[in-house]
Amino acid sequence: MSLKNDAFPASAAFDAIAGVLSNDTEKKDAIKKGGAIFCFTLKNAAGQTDSWFIDLKTTGAVGKGEAPEGKKADITLSLSEENFGKLVEGKANAQKLFMGGALKIKGDMMKATRAEVVLKKAQAKKAKL
């Protein structure tokens, strides 16, 4: 089942991330480095919002919604779909987006920096957006 939402072209990156995390070695490494459930809430040019989660706390699961069923996200990152695409492609820096107000973070700020671990794995897989 694809996680891509056609109204959010950059959401194809979640399929790439899920693909990377389907490898047990990559999944264990990401969980060890991530240690949290990340929620990404994206807003597209039409003003619509949608959310996806990456569980780097226990299962390595990637899915739609704010968190796996029965769980709560440790960190919620809210940003435009366009900036998310740039972040995944390595064309934007999360710290600069945050400082410029283009990225909003709810939850543990230190853990939020760990999201980069899995985004870099998606870059390595060359997520085409």
Automatic annotation (TrEMBL):
Domain of life: Eukaryota
Residues covered by the SCP2 domain: 21-120
A Pfam family recorded for this sequence: SCP2
InterPro entries tied to this protein: SCP2_sterol-bd_dom (IPR003033), SCP2_sterol-bd_dom_sf (IPR036527)
GO cellular component terms, semicolon-separated: cytosol
PANTHER family: SCP2 STEROL-BINDING DOMAIN-CONTAINING PROTEIN 1, STEROL CARRIER PROTEIN 2 SCP-2 FAMILY PROTEIN
Listed name of the protein: Fatty acid-binding protein
Organism: Drechslerella stenobrocha 248
